[in-house]
Fold this sequence. Notes:
Blueprint: E1 9-18, E2 23-33, E3 38-42, H1 49-57, E4 64-69, E5 74-77, H2 91-98, H3 104-113, H4 129-141, E6 147-150, H5 159-175, E7 180-184, H6 188-194, E8 197-202, E9 205-210, H7 212-216, H8 219-225
Parallel strand pairs: 3-7, 3-8, 5-6, 6-7
Antiparallel strand pairs: 1-2, 1-4, 8-9
Amino acid sequence: MHKNNTPLLxxxxxxxxxxxxxxxxxxxxxxxxxxxxxxxxxxxxxSGKSTLLKTIAGIIRPNSGTIMRNYSxxxxxxxxxxxxxxxxxxxxxxxxxYHEHVDEEKIQTYLARFQAHSLSEKNITQLSGGELQKILIxxxxxxxxxxxxxxxPTAGIDxxxxxxxxxxxxxxxxxxxxxxxxxVSHNIHLVYKYSNNVLCLHENNLCCHGTxxxxxxxxxxxxxxxxxxxxxxxxxxxxxxxxxxC
Length: 246
């Protein structure tokens, strides 16, 4: 177990490239994440957000750098999952595939806790984008992770659905206060509203890392995203605020 003052995850000088170094994806990335922190990764398309998340998950190996993991259980929810629509499968059966040995009562408790009990017998392929995302997160939580990675969890969900998703993340934080979450998002407005810290990637480099207010004041952020980046709500995280590194 990690101590309260020890980062759950520390990344130092991480670089990733393809084609024998000809295509640089990430260059000299440095940051850390503490227990209970919600870190959002933002940036334009192609800046390496999903690559960074997959590297943390161990799916992609970095060319150089160090990843120090001070946790034992990680859950990764990818941007897309492929479901065979010709095969009838209920939500409960879908969860069972990944949690064969989990007690049924625990599964039902988690579904009820996040207002998804009514979805239990619904066909998994008939869920809305928001409902499916909720089930994927519940399935991830059943692993009792210390760190959860969410790759663009609101992709394909309308604005109302996005707000509902972030409200669920707040519920997750209430039930699991020590769980750390790293998520990739394009909705800067909601990112600033619900994140403790924000990491922005730009042109394969770490542009800025800090609290929403710190990141919003960065000149590069403003040039890329415009004044829309100014947060209207900020929830500081007293135990592990960072100074913006820009």
